[in-house]
User: What shape does this take?
Amino acid sequence: MAKYPLELTVNGQKHSFQVEADLRLVDLLREKLHLLGTKEGCGKGECGSCTVLMDGKSVTSCLVLALQADGAEIVTVEGLGGESALHPLQQAFIDCGAVQCGYCTPGMLLSAKYLLDNNPRPSREEIRRGLAGNICRCTGYVKIIEAIEAVAEGRYGR
Amino acid sequence: MSQGYIGKRVKKVDALDKVLGKPLYSVDLHQEGMLYLKVLRAPHPHALIKRVDVSKARALPGVVKVITEADVPWLKTYGLIFKDQEVLVKEKSRYLGDRVAVVAAEDEKTARQAIKLIEVDYEPLEIITDPLRAMEPQAPKIHETNQAAFEHPYNTGNVLAVDHLVKGDVEKGFAEADHIFENTFRTQHVDHVALEPEAGMAEYDAETDTYTLWAPCQWTHDIQTDVAKVLGIKVDQLKIVQPEAMGGAFGRREDISVHIILPLMAKLTGRPVKWVMTRHETMIMMTKRTPMTFKLKTGVKNDGSITAWQSEVIGDTGAYASTGASIVHQAMYVSTGPYNVANVKGVSYTVYTNNTYTGAMRGFGATEAAFAYDRQMDCIARDMGWDPAEFRLKNAYRVGSRTGNNQLLTTSVGTVDTILTAREHFGTKGTPSAPHKKRGVGLATIMFGCGYGEGFPDHSIAQVQVTDEGRILLRSAAADVGQGVKTIMVQIAADVLHLPPELIDLAVNDTATTKNAGSTSATRQTIFSGNAVKLAAENLLGKIYHRAYQELGRAYPELSLAEGDVILHGTTKQMTLGELAQIARAKGEPLAAEGCYFPRTDINYENAQGEVVYLTFTFNTQYVEVEVDTETGQVDVLRVVAAPDVGVAINPAGVEGQSEGGVAMGMGMALMEDQVFKEGITLNPDLATYLVPTALDVPEIKTVIVESGDSCGPYGAKGIGEPAMIPTAPAILNAIEDAVGIRLYDLPATPEKVLAALKAKAAEGGK
Assistant: This one.
């Protein structure tokens, strides 16, 4: 299959590739950049596990072709914050007990970041709507919502 | 008494790595030169396999190996209890997920293409979807070519198991009753929807003839023995490594999924192999919650006391046994709930069909049973004019009660407390948001026996040691599926050893270096591995004190441990734990200890009566408020109050997390989740058509922990994983009845069913 040039920025770093037309963004991130934090749960955009930010918008990276991300800026969980400088959402997820199996966590964090970037003071209902595309089978969402609320209320220095 | 780490809202030990996206799940594993597997599954749920031609697949460039049953006729059958499942089917398919061929290729895309090139001729047989049809003597036998399925003494063809319970004299009990209530309740196929699809990786070392398998397991040691038997090898030739994290389990990772094919193909190809299933594939092939029909007959006196209870349970195990027979008989055993009944008679049938096979899912029969018994209790209360809570309080177990299995409850019986606590925190219902919407309140009270019980040799072994660096290395095979047993074990070790949790490291979890911890199921790990760690840590503490006494010349109470130092009071003498460990090791008596918790249970399977059938019981009452839209049939759950009696909460934040997640899963079962089969074909094998609750569906959940203490678990703790979800579905359907007066008997209560019942009720009222 023919390959096409692709340039994009992932977590602040520029990369260029030659990729096949049917390569998905999730595969590019996981297989070519070894950013394994982004998880695939359904491959059809139904579970939200593979959510990343593309030019500031949340996308399910299993439904985005890598070539569609040409020129884009991508943020994955690895770009959210490091161990010594956690993003407020990461710290709040730990403190509120919002993490169980952790498979949905990277996608949840990025959906939450997208929400707060665009609506810094969401109501509970707005938080629920912001997470509606991300399935969590472990937590019942309660502590995830509490964590996001804690960040929105400024308890983590935002 | 606790030293300070018990009962604290401790942060999960693995949460930091998880928010960074660091842990490697099975889907993340990789080795240089590895091949990718794909499986051809039978498109017919019941068909003879007349011809298989893999020649075109084998000829495809990039394909390394294609196998069918003919290539590996020496493989044994497998299964969690009954070994009735073939790795690759030989003569016929029994359900939609049966494996016909396996392809190993250089990349996933090639493997997928190769699967499409395999030609198979099938001769369709009658597809049996209804257990009642399966039970008819003239029905085709689903397992007639499979001898393993016929080893069970009760087997009469498609009936895998028949089980009985007899307590007292049920006929005498009915004769004493003033009222008899008979109802039939049904539960559905539910998928676990663990977010991580089934996946794993394996390699084979020809020099040592050994295999390594990386794949999520709720019970590594049990899967190790099953896989070894199938492959015809010794258990120590197969090492299973639990991946660093597992994307949920809920029972489905008790069963074999990728665990045989991966090591088999690693050997046959001589290369590492990886296999990741699609969501579609996992939903078609993996176990479901066992659908059951409960025929209940209850005798009640005018004063509200229950004199007799008869249960007939028919469970559809699907094409294979897995744990189906145990799930169905447990459902029958507990079908009187946490309510006093002197005379009980039960029978259960576990039946093969061509539906997708079923297995363990959160509750293991107790969830299905609770839907039936708590709906039954609610119907009786309403029909007799009792307040539903008062009717439960009148009959609830207390210390001195005897369960359906005739087990005397001597301690940690929080039934009444859970009802009173949940009621108190619930308050009263609110006003509907529109005239065509009606509000209702419902409750349900359940019990759950922790541990396998029934005389099964249930145990957990844990090991702890002090390293030369003065840290504690904790070895346990207990699977952390996200529920937090790692954190619980660290809390307990820290508590016993008077050390900060940060000093405790968890060793890699593999079958070569850990000992059997039993499964993460039956709500048993806090009790079993918690106790094992506590015993191990106590033994280690004794060794530390003894070695310190020998080196420092003073004994307790002049010695103590603090923050990793051994301190001799009244002097300046002290040494670090690391120094002490080095001395101990040099003298041939390392600071290492083991703990094993191995309690005994019993049952007489003739009548299901015993003295200690289950070790201890978790109780849980939930109150829910719903709003029913009488125009659309839509049911919104507005709020839930849960009051689980967990004995003692080792980590209250963890208990809340389980409770909230359990409520969400129970909501799904109550209102939306239904894996639909038509002629054995799964109609909704994806998350767009199989709906699970999202953040928009799940309401505010308040968990008020009840601590009745005094259980056999560490510090008096009991488990919470399964009982967290059990009351939710009956409570919701009870609330719907409270709101609009319709009596629903089947799950889930979809808008269509609610609307139909509302229309039927209106038509009846109009007569």
Summary: The first strand of chain B starts at residue 35 and ends at 41. Residues 34-125+198-276 of chain B form a domain with the Aldehyde Oxidoreductase; domain 3 fold (CATH 3.90.1170.50). Chain B has a mean pLDDT of 96.
